[in-house]
Amino acid sequence: MCPAVSALTPTHVEVYLFRRGPGGIELLLLRRSRRRALPGVWQPVTGRIRRRERALVAAAREVAEETGATPRRWWALESTALYFEPGTDRASVLPLFAAEIARGTRIRLSAEHDAGRFVTRRRARAMVLWELQRRALDALGREIFSKARLARELEITDLIPRRFRARPSPARVARR
Questions:
Q1: β-strand pairing of 12-21 with 90-100
Q2: Which of 96, 168, 174, 175 is the most buried (most CB within 10 A)?
């Protein structure tokens, strides 16, 4: 196998968490703490894929670790991020995921972040540092929020390991 092809094995994941509300869709951005590289940078849930870990499992694990949230639905975006790391002289591919959380979900930040904020997609585009993340936000709009048929095809909720899945809400009994 050509070294350039093997370098495209994913090493990290990004997950764009969102909730639906009366004012529309709100995305969660996390601010990196001062004790981390790139302090103060706003980002989606981002993390490294562990050795022998599937990207989807890494995405679910990172969401749980960084936010304490258990999304109700998941999507694998058609788009991916490709970037070059000068320090390692390698290109890396980043699978992009979207996950919906319930409106009242409480966010519990890890030590990696010192703040979290729900914002519109437009505001998120202004807050993130990397152009690749702005492109991912645009892809989220195209692939999940504006094309219902495509969103259905990209949904992967059933592929999420059970330990990371939201429990279904008890059925409500209609009262007359």
A1: parallel
A2: 96
Task: Please name the amino acid found at residue 60.
Answer: A
Residues sharing a CB contact under 8 Å with residue 91, sequence separation 6 or more, in sequence order:
4, 7, 8, 82, 83, 84, 85
* Residue 45 belongs to some domain of the structure: yes
Structure tokens at 77: 């975006």
Residue 175 lies inside a defined structural domain of this protein: no
> Which residues span the domain enclosing 128?
3-163
Q: Is residue 168 part of a domain?
A: no
CATH number assigned to the domain comprising residue 143: 3.90.79.10
pTM of the model: 0.88
In a domain, 170, yes or no: no
Per-residue pLDDT tens, the chain, 176 aa: give them: 444 444 578 889 999 999 998 889 999 999 999 988 899 999 999 999 999 999 999 999 999 999 999 999 999 999 888 888 888 888 888 999 999 999 999 999 999 999 999 999 999 999 999 999 999 999 999 999 999 999 999 999 999 998 998 876 544 434 33
Contact by Cβ (8 Å): 162, 57? no
